[in-house]
Amino acid sequence: MPTSTHSSPDSESPGRPPTVVVVDDDPQTLAALRRTFRKEPYRLLTSSNPRQVLDWVDDLEVSVVLSDQRMPLIEGIELLREVRLRSPKTRGLILTAFPGSLRLDLGLPSWVGRVIPKPWEDEGLRSVLRELLGTAPGAPSNPVQTPGEPDFDLGGEA
């Protein structure tokens, strides 16, 4: 797969696909998410490092950050709060195997689109992102794999 390049911070320019960033500390989850999104019409960047995600948010026009909630360095909701401070237009999604750990009764901030439970349903997750991005299925995709991220194949979609 191609590696990501960041020489042009105008990823939202006309004719360019929107940029979606996915962060999860589990390499197998990242690989499964890359498979889930491989045919989608946006640029996909993945990382296991929340600091790298913040660098991308600083350098690129990122449309959506999909973050795992439980990570060693920072919780997903805290990462999304920092993303929001740096890039007010960027939307966030939380992915978690422990939805009960979030205080959903207090409500989510308006910039967090949804909480997606693990395991997720592929088409449902793609649909949520399409809705946030306003994209139509079937457009050409431009998936980008982060350098150094292993691409484990867990089976699933062919």
Rg of Cα set: 14 Å
Shape: globular
* Span between termini: 17 Å
How would you classify the helix and strand content by structural class?
alpha/beta
- How many strand segments? 6
Tell me the CATH architecture.
3-Layer(aba) Sandwich
Q: In CATH terms, what is the fold-level topology?
A: Rossmann fold
Order of helices and strands: EHEHEHEEHE
- pLDDT averaged over residues: 77
Q: How big a fraction of the residues is strand?
A: 15-25%
Strand order of the largest sheet: 5-4-3-1-2-6
Number of helices: 4
Count of discrete structural domains: 1
The main β sheet shows up as: 6 strands, parallel
Key words describing this protein structure:
158 residues; alpha/beta; Rossmann fold; 6-stranded parallel sheet; 6 strands; 28% helix; globular; disordered N terminus
In words, what does this structure look like?
This protein has 158 residues and is α/β, with parallel strands linked by helices. The chain has a single domain (19-143), classed as 3-Layer(aba) Sandwich (Rossmann fold), CATH 3.40.50.2300. Helix content is 28%, strand content 20%. The chain contains four helices and six strands. The protein has a six-stranded parallel beta sheet, with helices on both faces. The two termini are 17 Å apart. The model is unreliable at 1-11 and 136-158 (pLDDT under 50).
